Prior knowledge:
This protein is an alpha+beta fold. The chain is about 40% helix and about 25% strand. Helix 6 (about 120-125) crosses helix 7. Belongs to the D-alanine--D-alanine ligase family. One of its GO terms (molecular function) is D-alanine-D-alanine ligase activity.
Amino acid sequence: MIERTVAVLAGGLSHEREVSLRSGRRLAAALRDAGADVREWDVDGSLVDRLRSDPPDAVAIALHGGEGENGSVQAVLELLDVPFVGTPAPACRRAWDKPTAKAELARAGLDTPDWVALPHTTFRALGAQTVLDAMVDRLGLPLMVKPDQGGSALGAHVVNERAELPAAMVSCLAYGDTVLAERFVRGTEVAISVVDDGDTARALPPVEVDAAGGVYDYTARYTPGAATFHCPARLDSTTLRLLEDTALAAHQLLGLRDVSRTDAVVDADGRVQILEVNVSPGLTETSLLPLAVRAAGMELGELYSALVERAVGRR
């Protein structure tokens, strides 16, 4: 097998910088174990010069949030004709904007919790309390309130009572200018990773998430022991297949490539409700994609080496 030179991009300036650095370190180690010549590059003002003066065979993106998932870095790599593992820039933008992605999923007949997305200016112009009351009257309680863009559950809160809503909104708006409020769906939370490492896309075994506090928030995601994971999820075979089919449909509908992760809830009626779709799944020691890779009988370095080869082949 040809030894490839791979630049792992991590860090950046988003709220998720520290998580991204952890993902990058783990991915770099996995690729080295698989025989790659790995360079670990932070995403800063030197990136373009590095790519031009010392071009790698391919780039593997371990960025979370901001430019790493909204298509900006991907667009620069496309401009420079640098092969990379991951989704093309236009599809990144679709998936990154949660209301846009939810609307496309809903139009295609996939289930996603009912929602409304409103910018901060709307609350200021029309009166915050009046708009909040209308929101609760339409969607009911409990609600999930989160930024319309971003990941790692930053700024996300479950609202059980009307009185909790203003504080949740303030916290949410600290991470973005638009609030996405959706019906909170009780059920089994599951993450399904999809990879394009062969002739066709395939879903890895779904990972069931059991958060100690009942909500899979930032603390539960990145604190060892704060959540328990089961892979494959403790669901019947029919539901497991439905989860895999749903994630594959979302991956293909949104035009994603190489690797993605669909977060969903199986409700009391057995319906799969898609919460969001991620183009740059976490790779930390508590992240869900590595669990699914192991459950599929693979190593992380093996998977990403195959994705690197596909990226090089696309060029």
